[in-house]
Write a structure and sequence with these properties.
InterPro entries: Aminotrans_IV, Aminotransferase-like, BCAT-like_C, BCAT-like_N. Pfam families: Aminotran_4. The chain is α+β, with helices and mostly antiparallel strands. 16% of the residues lie in helices and 33% in strands. It contains three helices and 13 strands. The chain has a five-stranded mixed β-sheet with strand order 10-9-8-11-12, covered by helices on one side. A four-stranded antiparallel β-sheet has the order 2-1-3-4.
Length: 199
Amino acid sequence: MCRFIETIQVRDGKLQNLAHHNRRMNETRQAVFGMVDQLDILNYIEDCPESGFYKCRVVYGREVCEVTFSAYTMRTVRSLRLVGSDTIDYRYKSTNRKELEALYALRDNQDDVLIVRNNLLTDTSIANVALEKEGVWYTPRTPLLKGTKRALLLEQGVLTECDIPSDEIYSYSHIALFNAMIDFQSLVLEINRDTVIRI
């Protein structure tokens, strides 16, 4: 049964950050299915676009069962609404996004939601986040999903993990949304009461 996804950025025929995608896929397979063999996504890639900016979607369970490519356009996000759920669990990148979609439906007039769990900031419906204070970028210690771009940025020392209580959000100056397809600092919002709305 296929139930998990890796979404990989493809630039001019090259799959970006593949080591982190392979690692997360194999860690998920081991945690959920008890599989200890190591798969390499590259072995399942055929007809990769040779130029341009694409999204590679890998669907897998115990084995890789589907690989597709599509052109990518970044969603416009200019505002966020804080919404809370202390029970949401999205530790594995699953095809089942019902909990995320239910929270996304609460965004009202904003473009996306910033999800609060146990009074701490986590992620938006589509991206990890980092918040800037005095030139330092902090990312939530307990995100909903430990993204592959997040893992790379932590390794590189670009981000610092910490708990970010939701009631302290306005003490930060900017918020960056990023994921495998959205490069860090390509989507940044100034934090104020017009761009980040508390319920």
